[in-house]
Each structure stands twice: as structure tokens, then as C-alpha cells.
Amino acid sequence: MLLEYPLASAWWEYIRSNWALMSILLTATILTVTPWLILRKYVKIMLNIIRDTPPPLSMGPSDFERIDGERVTFRAFDNLNLCGMFLFGNHGGRPKGMVIFAHEFTSDMYSCARYCRPLLAAGYDVFSFDFRGHGESSGEPGYMSRQWPSDREVSDMLGAIAFVENWLESRDLPVDIGLFGISRGAGSAILAAQNNPAVKAIITDGAFSSDTTLEYLMKRWAYIFAKVRFVYENHPPQFWRFLRWLLFRACRRKLNCTFPSVRKALQRMQEPRPILFIHGERDSYIPVEQSQLLYDLAPGPKSLWVVPDAKHNQSVVVRPEYYAARTVAFFDEYLANLKTVKDIGAGAMKQPPAQTPAEAVGRSSIGATGRSTNSKG
Asked: Which residues, other chains included, contact 307 with Cβ-Cβ below 8 Å and sequence gap of 6+?
């Protein structure tokens, strides 16, 4: 049969006489194409997760009493028009400091009332603003905001910090700023603060780094599209890091944005900033380990408070009195430079003993105040 097709016959003879070489080439092709197909499938699934994963419901319509402030407009670093407001605290013209509030995804600037009312009562001024595509701020054509802090949210945060700096300077007030970020807003705050010495202290609630969180989700959902359990359970760490790199390259092309690493921003901070990490123990959206990872990387001074029975961004609801005492005391020490905290309730700030990282993440039975880890760096 092959004699009727001289070309096919010639190829067959070539393969027979060079079977070792052809085996090597076939093996190399399989080893190259198979991983590429696997990676392509993983990236496609993860892009769908980034696009379509709905955020948890964390703010209800009757969740807090709204506070209205002095409305302003300002520009993000890429010149997009944003809206914000100043809320002035109970200080008789002598504020303890200025705190910029960064709301969570799908929320708005008015949600600051949920978290910052105790700060206003304690004598702090608060500047709250709407990220692009949220509330009353402008949207960017061709860009859709998602629950992951992107370069656009960092641009918004930098614009807010610059605006507040100018506002403080024009009134001969100290240009010392605290940041208070929730979930995506927390990551944006850390990213914007890494090279800005005006930021003196940061509080985060439900913070995460997009790269490590997406890697966690990759591993968590791999069984959905991996056919062989042994394969998806035994990918080496290099595989997940390479997949993460491919995913972010795809995001730049398909989503028109980048997702900077909060983890790397902490490591690159020019000056160590005091940071208080708050995280709900029952957070099924962003696991506690994500805040623990960021806490471990932060140079300090730093503190991690894991709130028992609290879900994503619900710590302030589960433990409102202690949440208020803790946040006010943190800014009193690191923004207002008040080393002695008074009038916050007898024993309210008494801390549980420090625990090892393993205990801080793995223990499920916790005392009334929640577990807490503190470090001065």
C-alpha cells in the first residue's frame, strides 16, 4: 500500500531508521504541549473567577446610620474625576489627626459611618471618597471595577492622599495621615502608602493580596477541571507561581488593568508603617491566612486581631465596642502620638497573650476578645 505513495513510503522508512530520534521528538512535543494545554485551561478558569465571582453581602441597607459631610471633588492620579467628603470630629478645632477611609467593593463613601463614627467622637477628622465606578465618582470607559485592587484603585487612593495633603497644608495643619481600608480598599491603601511618608499608620479589615489569594483559589477549585486527582494535588510551587504570572499577563490584555501585589508592597515599604490587621475568623471569602501572611511580611509595628464568629467585613458588627476601642487606640498611639490611652472603658484594651502564627491561624476556640498578635517590629 505504501508503495503507491512514494512520499509516505519515504517518511515511513525515515522514521524506521531514526526511531530513537523520532521518539525523543515525540516525547518532547508531548511534554511541551500537555503543560501548555493545562496552563491554558487553568488561566481561562481563573479569568472567569476574576470576572464573575460575586462578592459577599457585607453591607445591608439598614446596617448603619448615614453621616453626611462636606462634599468635594478631586482628581485621581490618572485625572479621573472623583467625589469625596470631609467629616469633622468632636475636637473644637483641634483635631487629633486626619484619617482617609477606603470603602469595600460595591460600597460607597457613606459606609465610613459603619467604621469611623468612634473616630469622629474621639476627635479625628475623616475623609471618605468613592472609588471610580462607585457611588458618585465617575466611571472609566472600557474599565470595569472588580473586587481585586487594581492599578486604577491605587490611582484613586493616591489622588485622595494628595488631595488631603494639599488640604492640610493650606490650613497649616500637620500633614500626617492615617488610612483605614476595608477589603479591596485595604489593599489599595497599602499599595498607595508604600512610598508616601505622609501616611503614618494604617488599619485594614479583611485585607488580602491578589496574587496569593488567587493562588489559593486556583488550588481550591482545581478539582473542578483537573481530571486526575494526583496531578492537581502534586503541582510543585513553581507551577502555581508561573500560572499566577500567566494569569496577570492575561489580565493586562483582557481586563485592561494590572493587579499589583500587596504582599510585595509591604516588603518594599521605604519606611515601616504601624499596621493593624483585622480579620473575621469565619471569613469564607478571604481566609484568615491571607491577613496572617500580610502580617508576617509587615516590618512592624504591627498587630493582628482575628475576630471570632465574624464573617467577611463583619467584625465591626460582631464586636462593635471592642472594634471602636481598638481602632481609636491604634490611631491615638501611632497617628496622634498619645502613648497613654484613656477613657476607653475599664479593661477594654486588655489583650490576650501573644500566640504563635500556627496557633493564631489554626485555633478555633477563642476567648471573648478574640485572638490577637502584636509586634513592635
From this structure: 278, 279, 280, 281, 315, 318, 319, 323, 370
| E strand residue ranges, the chain | 70-75, 81-87, 98-102, 125-129, 177-182, 199-205, 275-280, 302-307, 371-375
Look up residue 8 and give its three cell numbers: 509516505
pLDDT at residue 223, as a whole number: 58
- pLDDT under 70: residue ranges of the chain: 1-23, 25-41, 45-63, 220-236, 339-377
**247 is written with which cell numbers?**
494569569
User: Do 67 and 113 form a contact (C-beta atoms < 8 A)?
Assistant: yes
CATH of domain 70-212+255-375: 3.40.50.1820
- Rounded distance between C-alpha atoms, residue 138 and residue 80, angstroms: 7
What DSSP assignment string belongs to 75-89?
A: E-TT--EEEEEEE--
Helix or strand or coil: residue 189?
helix
What cell was used for 105?
467593593
Place of cell 494526583: 230
* 285 in Cβ contact with 312 (< 8 Å): yes
* Residue indicated by cell numbers 492620579: 77
Distance, in Å, from the CA atom of 25 to the CA atom of 28, rounded to the nearest integer, reads: 5
pLDDT of residue 234: 62
pLDDT score for 246: 78
Grid coordinates representing 262 are 500587596
Is this structure's pTM higher than 0.85? no
CB neighbours of 42 closer than 8 A, spacing ≥ 6? 218, 222, 225, 243, 247
3 state SS for 268-310:
HCCCCCCEEEEEECCCCCCCHHHHHHHHHHCCCCEEEEEECCC
Beta bridge partners of 127: 86, 100
Beta strands in 103-183 (DSSP E): 125-129, 177-182
| Distance between CA atoms of residues 1 and 50, nearest Å | 55
Q: 140 — alpha (psi -120 to 50), left (phi > 0) or beta?
A: beta
